[in-house]
Amino acid sequence: MAAQPLADLFKCSLTTCKMADQIYKQADVKLEPRPLTKDRETVETFIAHNAIIEGQRAGKRLGALVAGIKKDVVITNLLQQRAHRVAIYGWHLLSGVPIQPLTTVHVDWYVDYSHGIRLAKRQMIVDGEKRDLWDILKDPDMCFLVSGEGPIAVPHY
């Protein structure tokens, strides 16, 4: 519930599943997912999982694009079909296959240690022209650049 207001504040967007896949492919640092199975919503588990990630990332170049550490909270047309839900996807294995298929099973206030927020700048360049990511997502002729599900009429929470 905090991700969208923060994205708006910074003129950013949450990603789509296709963007999450593309980001994973381009990441300089790909870390193996380390799922935890108990006390998923506790602060202690958030801290423990962060320590695991920092241990994996140790010695890697700071500022490098990192992927494979969390499931992405994404934008999708499914959010229009089920009100008050959060869409999650990803947590790619080293093979590039996501652990989590796209799902809207959780209510929008649910969060656990495995959910990550990745913001993408909304301003993008298409054919040398500045465009807004949300306009591209809504455009039936351009959406394929960033969406695997066709146009996304409401590209935000």
Question: Your description of this structure?
Answer:
The chain has one domain. It contains 5 helices and 10 strands. It has helices spanning 3-9, 17-26, 43-57, 78-81, 133-138; strands at residues 12-14, 29-30, 66-67, 71-73, 85-92, 98-107, 115-116, 119-121, 123-126, 129-132. Strands 6-5-4-7 form a 4-stranded mixed β-sheet, covered by helices on one side. A two-stranded antiparallel sheet has the order 1-8. The protein has a two-stranded parallel sheet with strand order 2-3. Helix 3 links the parallel strand 2 (29-30) and strand 3. The radius of gyration is 16 Å and the shape is globular. The N and C termini lie close together (8 Å).
Label this structure with key terms.
157 residues; single chain; 26% strand; 10 strands; two-stranded antiparallel ribbon; four-stranded mixed sheet; alpha/beta
Uncertain spans: none
Beta-strand content bin: 25-35%
Q: Main sheet, how many strands, which sense, barrel?
A: 4 strands, mixed
Distance between the termini: 8 Å
What is the tally of helical segments? 5
Count of β-strands? 10
Write down the overall mean pLDDT.
96
Structural class: alpha/beta
Roughly how much helix do the residues carry, as a percent range? Answer: 25-40%
Strand order of the largest sheet: 6-5-4-7
Q: Which sequence of SSEs, written as H and E, runs from N to C?
A: HEHEHEEHEEEEEEH
Overall number of domains: 1
CA-atom Rg in angstroms: 16 Å
Q: Which word captures the global form?
A: globular
Q: For this entry, what is the oligomeric state of its chains?
A: single chain
